[in-house]
Design a protein that fits this description.
single chain, 89 residues, mainly alpha
């Protein structure tokens, strides 16, 4: 990752921290632009914080949990809040 992208990429805290590097590699492989990768990292960071706050382990993540996360995101964010936006996760 370039220094510019790393400067703008949010840090990931919580249960998804260990997956951040592989996530970035996969997004690059899929052809995401640097700006899109940063946006996806904001989404990943939010999901990781939400999982931690809700006490949900990654292995327990289910469709109802995803629906609850998206409902919360929709209420608090203007972008990246529907299933299609989250498909890279």
């Amino acid at each position: 990752m370039t220094a510019i992208r790393r400067a703008y990429r949010p840090q990931i805290h919580g249960p998804l921290t260990e997956h951040a590097e592989r996530f970035e590699i996969e997004l690059s492989r899929l052809g995401f632009t640097p700006a899109s990768i940063v946006n996806q990292f904001h989404l990943l960071a939010h999901l990781s914080r939400w999982l931690e706050t809700e006490g949900i382990c990654l292995g327990e993540l289910s469709v109802p949990h995803v629906d609850a996360f998206l409902a919360q995101r929709r209420a608090t964010h203007t972008a990246l809040w529907n299933v299609a936006d989250c498909s890279s996760l």
